[in-house]
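This entry is listed as follows:

___
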Amino acid sequence: MPGRYGMELRLLTYVVTIAEEGSISGAARRLHLTQPTLSRQLRELERQVGAELFARNGRGLTPTPAGQVLVRRARGVLAEAQAALDDARLAGQGLSGQLTITFAGSGINGPLGGALGRLRRELPRVDLRLVESFNDSEMSSAVLSGTCDLAVQRLPIRDARLATQVWWREPLTLFLPAGHPLAYGTEPAPLSALGQIPLVLWPRDVSPRSYDEIIALCHHAGVVPRVGAEGHSVQTLLALVAAGFGAAVLADSHRALRRVGVTPRALAGTSTVLHLVWRADDTSPLLERVRHVVAELQHIGAAEQAHP
């Protein structure tokens, strides 16, 4: 079957070329064939069709009604075949296809937005699909299941089937009610500040790794955390902070949200990391190219921190 299909495409190329050149001799020169070979191929095609495809008109050949139909359809088939080859070539080079990225707010509010803009400009044939998530475990699991191709997240799960790459570092920041005494400091707040104000946290069942990270900071500082409220999204956490329920510990990139009634203050001695996470066995050229483009922007975060 593959050989027959290849022959059919070649015969279609012959008949289109004969129609364009108007002669066997001209078509043979263009196709780098001998006239007898091309004449024999034309007879074979006419045998398959069951009708004469060209009529002699003076010194040239013109398509018969059957030939006109075949030439018109052949051009479409050949164009589609060429498009298929072009698409396959682009896919092999990582320049086309579909790729799904899952991300958290700390990514999109930081350098990820700029990285996505660059991907759209440099890879216009790629269908980028974006999935926002508030749960680190769910993001890693989506990559493992194949639902997503790449995750941009702070706390990936530990699994040998996942490959991870540190992408961007930033401090953790205490987002305080604007009128709280801690909000007036200009230097990074000491970890002991976590014991001076109730905390607005993610519920542990929503984001266990983020919750545990904050509780671990409290234990490291030797303070017992007091939970003032819980929220299921960054916007909710910041709204509760503005309402005076307490302070939230979030990645510093959330400063970009500029919530009224909330003052951010960096936490001394802390940092968090955004990782690129993908399946270790994923050899997709598109994924490799996307990771390369995104990795080139890994210093954007540092630059933004230096010049907020």
Observations:
- The chain has a mean pLDDT of 86.
- The chain has three domains: 2-92, 97-168+273-306, 172-270.
